[in-house]
Amino acid sequence: MKNKISMLQLTSINIFIIISSFFGIGIYNVYNAAKVDAWISIIFTTILSFLVLFIVIYIVNYKKDLTIGEKIKYLYGKKLGTFLNIILMLFVVSTAISLIFNLTHFIITQFLSETTVIAIELIFSLAIIYINIKGIETISRTSLILLFFSLIFLLFSMIGLLPNIEFNNFQPILEYGFKRPLNGGIRVFLLNFVPLFLILIVPKNQIKNNDKYNKYTFLAYMVGCLIIFLITAITLGSLGIHLTKIYQYPEYIVLKRIEIFNFIDRIENLISMQWIFGLFIVISFCVYNINNLIKPNNKSKLLPIIIFIIITTTTNLIFKNITIFNYYTYYIAPLIRIGFLIFILFIAITIKIKRSLKS
Amino acid sequence: MKKIKILIVVLFLLVVSGCYNYRELNELSIVSAIGIDKDKNDNIKVTIQVINSKKESSDSSQSNTNATFITYESSAKTIQEALRKVVLSSPKRFFATQMQILVISEKCAKDDITKYIDFFTRDPEIQMKFLTLIAKDTTANKILTTLTPLETINSTNIRESLKTNTRYLGIGYEITFEDVINNMINDKIEISMPSVIIINENKNQDSTKNLEQVKKIADSKISSIAVFKNNKLIGYLTDQESIAYSFILDNIENTIITTKCASGHISSEIIESHTKIDTNKNNISINISANANINESTCETDLNSKKDLNKIKRSIENNIKNNINNTLNTVQKKYKSDIFGFEDLIYKNDPKYYKNIKNWDNFYQNINFNVNVDIDTLEKGNTLYTPERKLKNEK
Amino acid sequence: MNKLVEKLKTDTDNMNDIIYRKKIISKIELYIVFSESLTNSDKISDFIIRSLNKLKKVNKKNILDKIKNNISNNKVQEINSYQEICHYLHSGFTIIIINGIDTYLALETKGELSRSIDKPESENTYRGAKDAFTEIYQTNIGLIKRRIKSNKLRIKNFNKGNYTQSEIGLLSLSDKVHKESYNNVIKQLEKLNVEDIVNSGEIKNHIEKETKSAFPTIRTTERPDIASLALLSGKSVIVIDNCPYVLIIPACLNDFFKTSEDIYGKNINVTFTRILKLLAFFIALLVPAIYIAIITFNQEMLPTDLLINFAMQRDGVPFPAFFEAILMMICFEILREGDLRVPGFSGSALSIVGALILGDAAVNAGIVSPIMIIVIAITAISSLLFTEPELINALRIWRIFFMIGATIMGIIGVLVVFLLLIIHLSSLKSFGVPYLQPFSPINKKELKDSIIKVDSQTGGQNEKN
Question: Are C147 and C157 in contact (CB under 8 A)?
Fold first, then answer.
């Protein structure tokens, strides 16, 4: 493999995959499902998500030269393999469309209220297509740089928000038992951690110092969990459950409360760039995924453009407004993700059988 | 390939160059405050205060006496409709993200406040950080049209004086619109907000003549807390009660307590006050700990003796304690409104017990309050003695 | 008459500049040929002619050895072909052609055609060495060799150009050099097929791979100490004859933030300066764009009092903010360009026109708002913090992209252009080395000497010790 990306860059993509789905989608789910106990949900999620971690590491260690698409074709033959790849692609598309809608809707409601969706999609398409033409190496490098910025912004927002937190807002703890937080935890697990399988598109041998794969994946997972936990707790702690529930983007609204030295305020626009960075990287990575599933090591510039156009058109057709979107993320998306999980489990089991047959 | 690239770029520019949200700063009039009244026909009368950003004539040395804000008003069935009507008379687009205060007249508040604030929660352009006040004994229109002497824009005047008030007195505190919404959605807390009045009302209060006087300038002034029940205004606390209200909600940064003694008065400043509220079934204990500075003393007490200092300490504590007890009594018995959010507190601290409460209003009447005030340290400022006292000693 | 001399005369159209002196020693005819303008006449008369006069007992067989032995010139070269004669003749050598012998002698008699070693002009320093490269290839190599006294210093020579026959030297330290980029440079230099080379800039354009990018992937310097430091940190240096600037390869973005003072300074002070530079980098890129975005799209980002202030200043300005900014930027760029070219004595007139008329009068006339003057001024000053002109130009181009982005979609437009910039920079490679090197991919060694300097050694270069 000529393209070599470093383990840390892959980690940064991993972290972005975990946290980007949280913004607008995950947070809506967890607050609606778990209410005041949302932060306990995240702890459940942390425990549950080890499952994903193990499967990712298990699959990536099988046939280290191949991407997930090629692995499927190798395992099931050409016909069945192609069919399964199409299903996998649909899963990726379902992730991508919710992220694209989330991105455009966030920008329209908070920044450019009179602009059409298409204009925003168009201007972002520039960046997404450009990065895909440049390939995975550029995606991973960009991702690492953007992660620096994101973490700095995140740190800044947390320092700014700490004085706002009222412990009162976390009470009452576990009023309705463990049922609600468990529900929320499973939702966050399905929405935020199941997409981690996207990373399987990068074969292990394409990575430099890949002997530390397990360690770094675990690191990404821990950092992702920590960030999600902090966002949930700080948003809830400073807004209170009632305000949190009326906003679509509470973690953005809460940034409006940042006031440092009574002077630096109204910086929520700048700080919220961290979400846009994340969404951008993961959407680009989704496009790369589809691109690679259709044609591994594709060099043509036309394919990413077509893929992006198809995805955005689907997004515009399916999600007419935020109500439909919220219905989708609350009732339909978790089901799709369960399907995704089963699909991947199926592959992992097949690998297990193949291996035991060999030995 | 190159042609395709150029085509894409041209297409792109065509689609995007509509510049949908593009608005030059010169095309905007910055809204600084909105006032809501009810007119005779039961319509909503909206007063919009807009900052006049016109450049002054070339001479910058001459102090300009022009008002630097303008108000528009119009009436309609809804606020949005009224705003649309105002556009007819304004050459510029209204821009409300910088809104500082929202003034709601007493009449509207007595009706039902929820009717009048829905608009402000929906518009994405409006930031919910502005302050909300009740126009006490007057209309919102009058508040927003009065020229104030020290600040050219009177909404800034109100905002800043509320800020200073919070910091140095404790009558009323900065309640943002978001807090009001929070209290409105949360059915376990009643709404309360500070009020604003006009002093020295006169005919010329909306012209610069008002500012040319030295005495009796009409001005807006922050007044006490307005109490709501079921989103309806039912009355106001007094100034003393407002301070007690701030004590209970732990909003005191600094306030003055004057206590009496045999031969005079002692005024002391309360700093670093912290309030902790504990609930135990229907007993609520309010514990306040604070530090105090003696600012002025006309008493014949020896400020150097431990005994006398303790005496002063106790009298300050008692003063605060009585004030709080009185306030709790008024709110509980007279207004029957839970502006302190005790219901929310009991629910949060003891959800199991809260489930047994059938009727909150009845339960509220039976709550026993136990107020403890503890002044930790008492400082005396620069002088060790009262000057008068010191002289006597030396004789 | 010698045939060769005859041929030379016809080829050069009997140029006055070339002197053919005939001399007969022991009945053997020989010609002393040299170019008058390139040579030092003292050297010729003192060393060559005088020693030739002393020759005795020569015959045709031993004359070549005798001359070689007795001549007091320091550099003697035996050459065989006509091409070589031309080459050496035009390089300032004196050729001795002996009748009937096919081997000729070239003797070094170069005249001093250059200025002495001067102070650096475009890269100043407080405490650094005060010498700068000159136009002479040998001097330049010498300046570097004086600093690196090691056998490991390798020089690979190339001769390029049909008419100019310029000498190109690729310097590297054999045990420290970054192999991949070194091989890439050699490949590019061997491939190099240019008519003529007068300046290093030409070579730069020909060997640079990222031609579409505005950002420089090669660093130029006129300071021998910077070149030596680059060699010590594993980079290669290209020295070209007749050019006082040498090329440093590879160059990542981070390298342009470094100055030679960084080695002398205390770590904490250097870190502070670097942070300042990074800030200036972003100011130069973003400030006009963010100003436009705030003024035309995201007015809610400003505190109320500041917004009123801005609105009052903008009142009456007839142009859109974007046009206003472009106008002032073009004015500044014209001024800067003028200041570079204009002779010293009219410089003050230029600054008066620039400062008074363009600044003050434009504001009074209501064409631009005062705040715009401030914005453009801070941008211009920030971009001048960098010494590499290519980087300043790259910043200028991307600044305009950012401004277009801001005009299309406000702060979101700026964000998208920012993403494009980051993607662009990440995709760049300088001779195989990623352009954002110490940050992405992370390079732990170099990270110690990036924005925050922690290594007390000379910038992490003595890692092996």
Answer: no
Domain assignment present for residue B7? The answer is no
Residue C326 covered by a domain: yes
pLDDT of residue A150: 92
Which of residues B183, B218, B236 is at a domain's end? Answer: B236
Q: Are residues C61 and C194 in the same domain?
A: no
CB contact under 8 A, B97 and C410: no
d(CA A75, CA B167) in angstroms, rounded, equals 71
pLDDT, averaged across chain B: 82
- In this prediction, residues B191-215 reach a mean pLDDT of 81
pLDDT tens by residue, C186-243 = 888 888 777 777 776 777 878 887 778 889 888 888 889 889 988 988 889 999 888 8
pLDDT number for residue B61: 44
Q: Are residues B231 and B352 in the same domain?
A: no
For residue B125, which residues of chain C lie inside 8 Å, CB to CB? Answer: 300
Whether residue C389 is contained in a domain is answered as yes
Residues from chain A that touch C450, judged by Cβ atoms under 8 A, are: none
Q: Cα(A240)–Cα(A166) distance, rounded to whole angstroms?
A: 8
B268-302 confidence digits (pLDDT tens): 888 888 888 888 878 889 899 988 888 888 877 77
The domain total for chain B is 2
User: Does residue C309 sit in the same domain as residue C396?
Assistant: yes
Least Cα separation, residue A342 to chain C (angstroms) = 35
**Which residue's entry shows tokens 């070589």?**
C84
Q: Which chains would you list as touching B if contact means 3+ CB atom pairs under 8 Å?
A: A, C
Q: What is residue C458's predicted lDDT score, i.e. its pLDDT?
A: 47
For the ranges A282-296, B2-16, C121-135, the maximum mean pLDDT occurs at A282-296
One domain for residues B229 and B102: yes
Q: Does residue C126 sit within a domain?
A: no
Q: Which domain holds residue B370?
A: 239-395
Average pLDDT of the residues of chain A: 87
Same structural domain, C245 and C278: no
How far does Cα C269 stand from its chain's mean position? 28
Minimal C-alpha gap between A284 and chain C (Å): 12
How far, in Å, CA of A40 to CA of C246, rounded? 62
* DSSP-assigned letters across all residues of C141-192: HHHHHHH---TTEEEEEEEE-SSS-EEEEEEEETTTS-HHHHHHHHHHHHH-
C416/A123 touch (CB, cutoff 8 Å), yes or no: yes
The last residue of a domain, from among B236, B254, B289: B236
B118 contact A CB<8A: no
- Asked if the Cβ–Cβ distance from B124 to A246 is below 8 Å, we say no
pLDDT at residue C288 is higher than 90: yes
Query: Predicted confidence band at B17 (pLDDT cuts at 50, 70, 90)?
Result: low
Question: Domain limits at C238?
Answer: 137-262
Tell if the CB–CB gap between A267 and C301 is shorter than 8 Å.
yes
User: What are chain A's partners, defined as 3 or more CB pairs within 8 angstroms?
Assistant: B, C
Q: Return the CATH number at B311.
A: 3.30.300.210
Choice between C314 and A139, residue whose per-residue pLDDT is larger: A139
Q: Do B95 and C316 touch (CB under 8 A)?
A: no
Burial C391-413, CB ≥16 within 10 A → b, else e: bbebbbebbebbbbbbbbbbbbb
Using a CB–CB cutoff of 8 Å, tell me whether B91 touches chain A. no
Q: Answer whether residue B8 is part of any domain.
A: no
Q: Do A123 and B16 touch (CB under 8 A)?
A: yes
What pLDDT score does B13 carry?
Answer: 62
In-domain check, residue B71: yes
Overall domain count for chain C: 3
Q: Is residue C129 part of a domain?
A: no
Share of chain B above pLDDT 70, in %: 88
What distance in Å separates residue B182's CA from the closest CA in chain A?
A: 6
- Compute the distance between CA of residue B191 and CA of residue B179 in angstroms, rounded to an integer: 9
Helix (H) or strand (E) holding A51: helix A50-60
- 3-class SS of residue B307: helix
B268 and B309 share one domain: yes
Whether residue C243 is found in the same domain as residue C96 = no
pTM for the whole thing?
A: 0.88
